[in-house]
Amino acid sequence: MTASEDSFEARMRDILQAGGLRRRGVQAPSYDELRPFGHRETAGFPVYKNLERKLLNAVEQPDPEIAHLMATCAAYAYSDPETLSMIMARMGLEDNHCQMIQSSVDAMLISSTAFLILSRSGRVGILCYRGTEPLNFINWMSDIDVEPERMGYQISDPCATVHAGVYRNVRATRYEIMNALRRACGDRQATGGPSAGGDHYEADGPRSEGELEALYITGHSQGGAMAALMGVMIRHERKYHDALADRLRAVYTFGQPMIGDPNFADACQSDEFLRENVIRYVYDSDVVPHMPSTASGPFRHFGREMHYRVPHLVNSLMSMIATSRCASQARKGRWEARRRPTGQMPGLLGIPMSAMAYAARKFEATRSLPAVYSIDDHLPQHYVSALTPAGVQNEFGD
Predict the structure, then answer these.
(1) Residue 148: which H helix or E strand, with range?
(2) Among candidates 271, 244, 246, 255, which has minimal Cα distance to 218?
(3) Where is the Fungal lipase-type domain (predicted)?
């Protein structure tokens, strides 16, 4: 880390501790609380049995069940820690502990929220970043703060630059997240600093008996960009690499915008882990993975891309000739691995086009029309639905 980065984080810590830093930890409700009537566990509840073992032992990435879990986690990160912890318990992480780390400094265009979910034993952790909140003006301002910025350390290319807004928001919560991960890894000397009420992070909940063995990072929209950038930091910043690189299993992102220029993307592609284990999911015509546009300068994705293709016209025709209107397949498609990543939107014309596509999907007569760009396809529920494996219950285990 450079002297300028040390200075930035020192100033940021002073600002955040003055009132911009919020932190809260919760324990998931028990299965008895989640199932007040009927059997405690059924064929569909929890959604995945032995989920911790699955996360510990997964060899191949992406894994369809893990992708479903991560998409669900990223979607519910727009809520509070109680809700996210409850959903993760329903998915199969019984008695998990969820810690929210949040900072906001409006004048600095910072609105950063992350959640660290630890399994009951503490052996599995999921770091999830919240994406752009629809009604959060600062989130939107940080999204369009696309001025290129060099990272505080070299990633095999001294000229590589990243999205300034994403980089700033990752750094705003990074030192608190790293303290939480140090504790999860068994470092009893790690402290999180005081909260607004003067308490320390240890008051958020009991320490896990085991040490962190498997870490997954995820997020939707800008949260996906922050997740991917944190993955890069863990791999390439020495102090983080030594402690966490061997524990990091994969980064799953959904509807993620680009975070760096072609030099940055090429440097990431040269890292085998980032090339193979950063997995980006793009739903149909989602406009956000095409952003920033070429008007903002050159940007490029890195990692592996999975694209969900929806044949709207074919699905509409099949629904029309079906004997029952219940046979509608308006959004039925399939995931495909893409060799070439999603490219930048040329200019800015695609932005109003994506808004028009959103309106078109709300009317039956225009619903089946294909779109070049769509903001409707960016909604997290579409990612969750498309990634739910056949025969698997929804996230509530209904």
Answers:
(1) strand 148-150
(2) 255
(3) 215-293
Cα four-point dihedral sign 110, 146, 248, 263: negative
CA dihedral over 200, 185, 167, 372, signed as positive or negative: negative
For range 44-69, the mean pLDDT: 96
Kindly report the CATH number assigned to the domain that includes residue 228. 3.40.50.1820
Is 203 part of a structural domain of the chain? yes
Token look-up 């008007």 returns: 295
Please name the amino acid found at residue 247. Answer: R
Does 76 reside within a domain?
Answer: yes
Q: What phi, psi does 221 have (nearest 5°)?
A: 60, -130
Per-residue burial over 297-312, b = 16 or more CB atoms within 10 Å of its CB, e = otherwise: eebbbbbbbbbbebbb
3-state class (DSSP) for residue 41: coil
- Model pLDDT for residues 113-172, shown as the tens digit of each residue: 999 999 999 999 999 999 988 878 788 788 878 888 888 776 877 889 999 999 999 999
In a domain, 240, yes or no: yes
Classify residue 371: in a domain, yes or no: no
Question: Hey, is 58 helix, strand or coil?
Answer: coil
pLDDT digits (tens, 9 = 90+) for 173-209: 999 999 999 999 988 666 554 444 333 444 444 455 6
Which two tokens mark 69?
């879990």
- The tally of domains found in the chain comes to 1
Determine the length of the chain: 398
